Amino acid sequence: MALKYVVKKRVFGFDKTKTEKYVAQNVITNTVDFRDLCKEVSMYGMIPEGAVKHVIDALIDALNTNLNKGLSVQLGDFGCFRPGMNCKSQDAAEDVDADTIQRVKIVFTPGYKFKEMLEKVSIKKTEGNGSNASSGNNGGNNPEKPDGGDSGETPDPDPAA
Question: Most buried one in 52, 62, 130, 155, CB count within 10 A?
């Protein structure tokens, strides 16, 4: 399997000339729902499906509690969750207040197993009709994060983070 992308035309707000540019946009081919994910974890871990569901539900509750306190939560090799925010910039420090915060979000930094996967994942270009053309592999691909754009996928500005 490979990650798939399509080429999309974009106009970036930071470009004063409003020049149209082209970017690769990740294509999500399907979604694994919670129940199917619990079944899969149950098979890998040889734990009853109901127990997996209860543990994941409890993990979500614990994450919510700790993130709401402003704490970063490290989940071993899985990665780290931390609260974050997007803010409007101001010309003076005294102009920065709670009203300049546009959005509160959760930031996920993957652990080493996900980072290794991202370095080794193959990438393939796909067309609207479903035909595939390889664009290379060679690792070191920039991960993408769901955090904006029309489809929710934008390139990560700092893949080392």
Answer: 52
